[in-house]
Design a protein that fits this description.
The structure holds 3 protein chains of 3 kinds.
Chain A: H1 6-30, H2 46-53, H3 55-88, H4 95-107, H5 110-124, H6 130-154, H7 158-166, H8 171-200, H9 203-208, H10 216-226, H11 230-258
Helix pairs in contact in A: 1-11, 2-11, 3-6, 3-8, 3-10, 4-6, 6-8, 7-8
Chain B: H1 15-20, E1 33-42, E2 45-55, E3 60-64, H2 71-79, E4 86-91, E5 94-95, E6 106-109, H3 121-131, H4 136-149, H5 165-177, E7 183-187, H6 195-212, E8 215-220, H7 223-229, E9 232-237, E10 240-245, H8 247-252, H9 257-262, E11 267-276, E12 281-285, E13 291-294, E14 305-310, E15 316-318, E16 327-338, E17 342-349, E18 356-362, E19 377-382, E20 388-391
Parallel strand pairs in B: 3-8, 3-9, 6-7, 7-8
Antiparallel strand pairs in B: 1-2, 1-4, 4-5, 9-10, 11-12, 11-14, 12-13, 14-20, 15-19, 16-17, 16-19, 17-18
Helix pairs in contact in B: 3-4, 3-5, 4-5
Chain C: H1 5-35, H2 56-62, H3 66-73, H4 75-108, H5 111-126, H6 129-140, H7 145-153, H8 166-191, H9 194-202, H10 207-235, H11 239-244, H12 252-261, H13 266-295
Classes of the chains: A mainly alpha, B alpha+beta, C mainly alpha.
């Protein structure tokens, strides 16, 4: 650990450059006045204006936000319950089933998850749209939420809860006054992850949605299929900025909580 | 905060109270905590095995033993974190079966301290009082009292991560004491402190206990800690109690070979009783054929196999043959360990292949040249009362 | 007041178990059921009829493997499966080659930088996957950024055709799943006791030998976890081959999508899904076993 040597620096710059190049290109082109990628037509906010007038895209954005917020909240709730059961309950009937059901969607290709959920919805005669996409996203993201909360619970000193009990707090009060405050950062991280995954999902939403409900990734996908659309660059830049903003805010909040007071 | 105060504070407890305090010897005394035939298994492992024990009010009681001996399980069963498979645990005559940890009259100081990281020192100490639903002013008063008791006035608004290790230990103690439990449980209370701090804290803990008149039950693997603090020590091994007695009895009169070896340094010599009378017994060791004279123990007769346990500091070491000694053995110095306060000699007795005896010699002078050196031929001697006879 | 412990537990275990059973396990049973129906393009939907346990026998008797026979007879599906495995394996290897040096450099960076570096690696993952793949179109196409730069620099005289080839798919896969390789490898390297490498040096091992005999063997659990996290999702990937691949790039995720949305042959799509899953069971068990061996 004696500072960076040249080969390390090359690996870092090359690796991170590879990760950030496409994002940089998108942001750059979103400010290009020209429709053509080959030509730099000067700095312009033209495509942002066009984006704001694109009602279909904006509708899709709001739909996606609603789906993401709702599904992330439900997934965090279910994931927290599952994590508590898996970390704290020791052996119980259904443990194997639960841990399997929590792990399986992680390795399941999205096309299969999407297809199977659609077949269920068709079979059950559910009208497809906002609710079916939300259910599908809860199913997908619960697993990720479980893993995040599980990691937080495992890292927590068990004797803290025992101490609370020892001092006279019944189980539910132990949970509310000790467990919950301590795993809250984990819950926030789980929610953010679930929210982002839902906002980002194209495949499962495509399978499970109905005529009236087109999510943002579906709109973006069909625009890309149609050819070059600088509006999408602008939309992507806004999304990237939004995510960056949320992450910076989250890390600031986390830092403030961690920093000693006074 | 750490370290000893500059001047010695007035004693809060009188030394002779401790000496006179022996409710376990009084048949009329009523124990506060009782374990009756308690057994606890984890899977196939028996952690606590049919254990019976009584702890008296006002006692500072230590559970001492190597890791895995069941001492922690025993304490956790008293706190309510584990349920015994069989047997009965009671406090003040009340059976604790089915009573959850949050309704027991015990409080625990955890080994890791388990201070709530998201609460201030005050909130940590007040936590137990709030569960009782006490009025705010009463809680504030108690918290201030506790902070003064552990000498942490002015630090109430800090978070645990802003405190030193010694300060955290005091907060944990204050939090456990705030509810005035009938029994205070201490899980390796000094384990996380460095040596100097440990010594200072040890005496504070003793004073605190006699001042408050509470019953303390401590779990430790550190014999020094147990010896210094406890009124009585229960030495545990394999889920059972090997011996329960005051520290000096544990050390000078161990009941079993395990206790003799676990607490303090000891020389163990196996042999057979060849002669027994009212005045002494004679033991012949195998295979070396050394003869050892000891005080006669009750119930042992010629032919019985015994182990003689001999503490290193009870043995004298000299160049010249001691004319009067009851027990004397010739040997050769094999190794010398200089430890500052005393020197530990390893002496080979009875020639090549003979046993090594450990002999401790206090360094009472600052002389640098010491008369005893490697390979010196020396004599070891000790009194008849020095050797402890253990059956088997 | 005192709620029985078992009941309390039921309230915790019940909801997630019920949800995942209803929306994950049950749907998969339906897929299996429909995969065993007769192949019939453009005749959806295939609502499964549940007629009670008494009819289970009849239900099972009605199942047949015809759809699977169709798949196995058509080389398109087998080719797509094999090509998916090949591309995913290649992408995993490339991700390791790109990711290991990056992870190694991160682990050897000064400690105060490490958190920032980890955040930098995770950050792109938080931005839309679809958009990041789309960005590669702008970079790789004939009039794209890459060709523009290379032409200006005089490295090439005419634009390279990368977009809509397997190369583009590989770039896209490596790019998309690189953080999944870097993070576990970094975690393994970061945990690695520095004094082990110093001990190897002290015992006379030159740098490359240290890397091969100490660092890599000890980072093996991380490498295996990374390989698993890249390989498994890459096999079933749809977006990358669809946007970056050409007409001749065959990947099973895309085939399934086409069968479903374009050909509307649901039984066939379901059967392909079942086959894909069966295909993944092997690698999953393989990785699990390797990981267990590495942990022991």
């Amino acid at each position: 650990m004696n500072g960076l040597r040249a080969p390390h620096l090359v690996a870092l710059v090359a690796g991170l450059g590879f990760l950030y190049l496409p994002i940089l290109v998108l942001v750059l082109y979103s400010f290009n006045a020209s429709r053509l990628v080959t030509v730099w037509g000067g700095f312009s906010l033209h495509w942002y204006g066009a984006l704001l007038r694109n009602a279909a895209l904006i509708d899709a954005f709001w739909l996606s936000l609603r789906v993401a917020a709702l599904s992330a909240s439900l997934a965090t709730l279910l994931g927290t319950l599952a994590a508590i059961a898996l970390v704290r309950f020791g052996r119980f009937t259904g443990r194997g089933l639960l841990s399997g059901a929590v792990a399986a969607p992680l390795v399941m290709p999205e096309v299969i998850t999407g297809l199977s959920l659609l077949l269920l919805f068709v079979g059950a005669g559910l009208e497809r749209g906002f609710w079916t996409v939300t259910i599908a996203h809860v199913t997908l993201t619960t697993c990720f939420a479980t893993i995040v909360v599980q990691a937080r619970l495992v890292g927590m000193d068990r004797s803290l809860e025992e101490a609370a009990q020892d001092l006279g707090a019944p189980p539910w009060r132990v949970f509310a006054s000790v467990t919950l405050p301590l795993i809250l950062p984990g819950l926030a991280a789980a929610w953010l992850l679930a929210f982002t995954l839902s906002l980002d999902d194209l495949v499962i939403a495509s399978f499970t949605t109905g005529p009236g409900a087109t999510t943002l990734p579906m709109r973006i996908y069909s625009a890309i299929r149609l050819g070059v659309t600088p509006e999408i660059n602008a939309a992507s830049t806004i999304l990237i900025a939004l995510v960056a903003l949320v992450l910076v805010a989250a890390s600031l909040i986390a830092k403030r909580n961690l920093l000693p007071r006074g | 905060m750490a370290g000893l105060p500059p001047s010695v504070p007035p004693r809060k407890s009188l030394g002779n109270i401790r000496r006179a305090f022996a409710p376990w010897a009084n048949p009329a005394a009523r124990p506060l905590v009782t374990f009756e035939g308690v057994t606890k298994r984890f899977g196939g492992v028996t952690a606590v095995d049919d254990l019976t024990l009584a702890i008296y009010p006002g006692e500072f009681f230590a559970l001492l033993g190597p890791s895995g001996c069941g001492k922690t399980t025993l304490m956790r069963m008293l706190a309510g974190f584990e349920t015994p498979d069989s047997g009965r645990i009671a406090i003040d005559g009340q059976d604790l079966a089915g009573i959850p940890p949050y309704r027991r009259p015990t409080n625990m100081m955890f080994q890791s301290y388990a201070l709530f990281p998201h609460m201030s020192v005050e909130d940590n100490i007040a936590y137990g009082l709030r569960q009782e639903g006490q009025p705010r002013t009463e809680i504030a008063r108690r918290v201030a009292e506790m902070l003064a008791l552990v000498k942490l006035e002015g630090l109430g608004r800090r978070r645990p991560d802003q405190l030193s290790g010694g300060q955290r230990q005091r907060v944990a103690l204050a939090r456990a004491l705030a509810k005035r439990p009938k029994v205070l449980l201490l899980d390796e209370p000094l384990g996380a402190l460095d040596r100097k701090l440990r010594e200072a804290t040890q005496y504070e803990l003793m004073d605190l206990q006699s001042e408050l008149g509470l019953t303390f039950v401590m779990v430790t693997h550190d014999q020094d800690e147990a010896m210094a603090l406890a009124d009585r020590i229960a030495v545990m091994s394999g889920g059972r109690i090997a011996q329960v007695a005051p520290p000096e009895v544990i050390y000078e009169n161990p009941a079993t070979r395990f206790v003799a070896e676990f607490v303090g340094d000891v020389n163990l010599v196996e042999g057979t009783i060849t002669e027994a009378s009212e005045a002494f017994v004679s033991i012949r060791t195998a295979p070396e054929g050394l003869v050892i004279i000891a005080d006669p123990p009750p119930g042992l007769h010629p032919g019985a196999a015994v182990t003689v346990a001999l503490r290193p500091e009870k043995v004298a070491i000299t160049h010249a043959e001691p004319p009067q000694a009851v027990n004397k053995l010739a040997g050769e110095i094999w190794d010398i360990g200089y430890l500052g306060d005393f020197t530990m000699f390893q002496v080979k007795v009875g020639g090549e292949g003979g046993p090594l005896f450990k002999v401790a010699l206090a360094n009472r002078t600052r002389r640098v040249e010491r008369p005893l050196a490697w390979d010196d031929r020396v004599w070891l001697s000790w009194d008849a009362e020095a050797g402890i006879l253990l059956a088997g | 007041m005192a709620v029985p412990r078992r009941l309390l537990r039921l309230f915790v275990v019940g909801p997630p178990l019920l949800w995942l059973g209803l929306f994950f396990l049950l749907p998969f049973a339906i897929v299996l059921r429909i995969a065993l129906s007769d192949s019939a393009p453009a005749l959806p939907p295939y609502a499964p009829h549940w007629e009670g346990w008494s009819r289970l026998g009849a239900f099972l008797a009605a199942l047949d493997g015809e759809t699977f026979a169709v798949i196995l007879a058509d080389s398109l599906y087998l080719d797509a499966l094999l090509s998916s495995l090949r591309l995913a394996a290649l992408a995993t290897l490339l991700a390791l080659l790109v990711g290991f040096p990056l992870a190694y450099a991160m682990a050897s960076a000064p400690r105060r930088w490490q958190t920032a570096l980890v955040v930098l690696v995770i950050l792109p993952f938080w931005t839309s996957f679809l958009i990041r793949v789309y960005a590669w179109i702008a970079i790789l196409r004939p009039e794209g950024v890459l060709n523009l730069v290379l032409l200006r620099l005089g490295v090439i005289s005419e634009p390279l055709r990368i977009l809509n080839t397997e190369a583009a798919v590989l770039i896209g896969l490596v790019y998309s799943y690189l953080p999944f390789m870097v993070l576990p490898v970094y975690a393994a390297l970061e945990r690695l006791d520095r004094s082990l490498i110093e001990a190897a040096a002290d015992l006379g091992a030159p740098p490359l030998r240290r890397l091969l005999t100490v660092t890599i063997p000890l980072a093996k659990p991380g490498i295996l976890a990374g390989a698993f996290l890249v390989f498994v999702p890459a096999v079933g990937e749809f977006v990358v081959p669809d946007l970056l691949g050409g007409p001749d790039t065959l990947m099973i995720g895309k085939v399934l999508w086409t069968d479903f949305f374009s050909n509307r042959d649901w039984p066939l799509a379901s059967a392909v899904a079942v086959l894909l899953l069966l295909l993944l069971v092997g690698p999953i068990l393989f990785f699990q076993r390797l990981a267990k061996g590495a942990a022991a």
